[in-house]
């Protein structure tokens, strides 16, 4: 489409702006480990070695872990889940009942659910087994920077629109 009088048409500017907003939204997706373990499974990768399991690009707000163990024998893990969710049951904490204790952790950085599911510790988001992460409110600084970059690119086009 040829610009009229040396200016871009409003429809082209609007389309470019929409593409920028959608791209920014998609770039805010988290990479989370996703797997499950139940007592008796022969493959314990989900429980002990997160870096060996599947990581997905999740469009939800949190990477989570849910660890359920016997209350009388805390070394006996009954179930373990690594997943991504919009609204975790609990951001961080545990709920005991007569038989089980269930630990909940949530975080908002890439591959931050690679820990053992019990300990709230650091907030760095590098993956791998044994890394202890938990509640990390908000979004990372790099995601905010990406939004700012897109704003700076399209701000001149919006000024031309007027």
Q: How is this structure best described in words?
A:
The chain folds into 2 domains: 12-25 and 145-161, no CATH class; 30-138, Ribbon (CD59). It is elongated and about 80 Å long. It has 162 residues and is an alpha+beta fold. The longest helix is centred in the C-terminal third of the chain and has 21 residues, at 141-161. Residues 18-26 and 121-162 have low confidence and may be disordered. It has helices at 10-27, 45-48, 141-161; strands spanning 30-33, 35-38, 55-58, 62-70, 77-85, 92-96, 100-107. The protein contains 3 helices and 7 strands, in the order αββαβββββα.
User: First CA to last CA: what distance?
Assistant: 19 Å
Spatial strand sequence of the major β-sheet: 2-5-4-7-6
CATH topology call of the largest domain: CD59
Q: Give the C-level CATH assignment of the largest domain.
A: Mainly Beta
Overall number of strands:
7
Radius of gyration equals 22 Å
Q: Please tell me the CATH architecture of the largest domain by its name.
A: Ribbon
The CATH homologous superfamily of the largest domain is called: CD59
In short:
With 162 residues, the chain is α+β, with helices and mostly antiparallel strands.
Keywords:
27% helix; five-stranded antiparallel beta sheet; disordered C terminus; 162 residues; single chain; CD59; two-stranded antiparallel ribbon
Indicate the topology:
Elements (H helix, E strand, L loop, with lengths): L9 H18 L2 E4 L1 E4 L6 H4 L6 E4 L3 E9 L6 E9 L6 E5 L3 E8 L33 H21 L1
Antiparallel strand pairs: 1-3, 2-5, 4-5, 4-7, 6-7
Helix pairs in contact: 1-3
């Amino acid at each position: 489409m040829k610009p009229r009088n040396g200016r871009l048409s409003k429809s082209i500017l609007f389309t470019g702006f929409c593409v920028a907003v959608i791209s920014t939204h998609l770039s805010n997706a988290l990479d989370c480990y996703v797997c499950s373990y139940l007592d008796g499974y022969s493959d314990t990768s989900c429980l002990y070695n997160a870096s060996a399991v599947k990581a997905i690009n999740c469009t939800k707000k949190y990477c989570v872990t849910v660890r359920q163990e016997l209350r009388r024998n805390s070394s006996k893990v009954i179930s373990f889940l690594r997943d991504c969710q919009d609204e975790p049951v609990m951001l961080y904490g545990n709920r005991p009942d007569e038989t089980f204790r269930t630990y909940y952790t949530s975080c908002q950085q890439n591959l931050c659910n690679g820990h053992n599911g019990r300990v709230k510790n650091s907030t760095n988001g590098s993956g791998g087994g044994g890394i202890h992460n938990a509640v990390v409110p908000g979004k990372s600084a790099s995601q905010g920077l990406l939004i700012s970059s897109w704003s700076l690119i399209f701000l001149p086009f919006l000024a031309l629109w007027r």
